[in-house]
């Protein structure tokens, strides 16, 4: 069984475990998915501990998206472009890979719901890591 988690602070309100268990069920995968609360000082230690204990993937939420970017050994082009990471994975050679999926996820959801954004004005409320992650994808999609 693969182990996954979401890390943030605060984290008690997160619906990620429910959402990811539903995804796994739809795909026929057995997973565990839990919440990890960290603080600025314990973030890196919590990430290392999670992966050392066999964790496969870690979702990152406030306030750690930039810190996750900084600790990543390799970054996807999306992560490099927006300067934030919301997904960490651990390779067999011990390297942490960072990805930013917020923008891609938003664009795909809009397309799946037939929301056309090309040549439209879009108001983004908030200025956190998610906003930082979605803006390059919005621009790339006109």
Tell me what you see in this structure:
The chain is 41% helix and 20% strand. With 142 residues, it is an alpha/beta fold. A 6-stranded mixed β-sheet has the order 2-1-3-5-6-4, sandwiched between helices. β5 and β6 form a beta hairpin. It is globular. The model has no long low-confidence stretch (mean pLDDT 93).
Keywords summarizing the entry:
142 residues, six-stranded mixed beta sheet, 6 helices, 41% helix
Distance between the termini: 41 Å
* Strand residue content: 15-25%
Number of helices in the DSSP assignment: 6
Calculate the mean pLDDT score and round it: 93
Rg calculated over all Cα atoms = 16 Å
Helix-and-strand structural type: alpha/beta
- Taking pLDDT < 50 over at least 5 consecutive residues as the criterion, the unreliable ranges are none
Could you give the order of strands across the largest sheet? 2-1-3-5-6-4
- How can the largest sheet be summarized? 6 strands, mixed
Helical coverage, percent range: 40-55%
Order of SSEs, N→C? EHEHEHEHEEHH
The gross shape turns out to be globular
In total, how many beta strands? Answer: 6
